[in-house]
Description:
This protein has helices spanning about 5-10, 45-50, 75-80, 90-100, 115-125, 140-150, 190-195, 210-220; strands at about 15-20, 25-30, 35-40, 40-45, 55-60, 65-70, 105-110, 130-135, 160, 175-180, 195-205, 225-230, 235-240, 245, 255-260. The protein is α/β, with parallel strands linked by helices.
Amino acid sequence: MNQTQTDKNSFHDGDLALLTDRKARRYMVTLAEGETYHCHLGRLQHDQMIGHSVGGWYRTDKGHIVLAVRPTLGDFVREMPRGPQIIYPKDLGNIVNFADIFPGATVIEGGLGSGALTSALLRAVGNTGKVINYEINESVLPKAIRNIERVTPDTSNLEIKIGSIYEGIDERDVDRVVLDVPEPWQAVAGIGDALIMGGILLSFVPTILQVQKLVLALEEDGRFQLIESIETLLRTWHVTERSVRPDHRMIGHSGFLTTAVRCEPKPGVPAPVNGELPTEEPTDEAEEPASDSPDE
Length: 296
Ligand SMILES: C[S@@+](CC[C@H](N)C(=O)[O-])C[C@H]1O[C@@H](n2cnc3c(N)ncnc32)[C@H](O)[C@@H]1O
């Protein structure tokens, strides 16, 4: 085992640690030599964890035991300091998936907020990709940048532009546009100009009226096809020897994701909605039913 592999098993000065107590309450701490973490369970010296096992159990001066692991990006997002409403981890994964964010992609993001989504995008594009963020409110930057830098060691491929994404996008031939802004329909024309052919737009909005307004704007623009809107409900389960049931609490609602692909306008006919072609389109008699269609 080489030195790097050995190191990954232990906490280091500057690492994030997620502490979990016996009631599953969670506390996030950035480890610093000589520092002390205080909470109602007592005091825990950071030096007890630095140089010691990730996944280890540590005892406070009041005798309580806590488990210390490295937070995932989702853990970090749930615990991080917030300004504007963040995108929840359940949606972050689906945004990366449905917007098809890939290593090396150039992504335009609308709305920095607290930096949760930006962190997920930076991780997905990797060192060879780039995230260019348009944010209208300069005051959100300090907290967002602090958050992003805590989970993304190298932010050299992040560019933040102060301005409204509704006013247009300077860049051209971008692979993806991802929006978390209140009126995404105002950005449609600029996105149509910026996206590469076949590029994907994804927009997160909390209400279905916003979804409808966006979809209608995309159809009217005519340069977007394969327009789809989805919502993710995620339910955790309580599993013990004596009881197996869904947990009582869940996030009932966060928002809707709408995706669309930049294509050539279809002459004379409206764009397909939710993957369906307009009824006046002639159908191919020999066409096989879609393999993922539910049984009728
Ligand atoms: C809900 S927050 C984004 C949260 C972020 N996605 C996260 O996960 O932390 C919305 C952000 O969009 C910004 N915003 C609103 N209108 C905008 C516009 N026209 N152009 C750019 N940013 C805008 C707001 O200032 C705010 O920071």
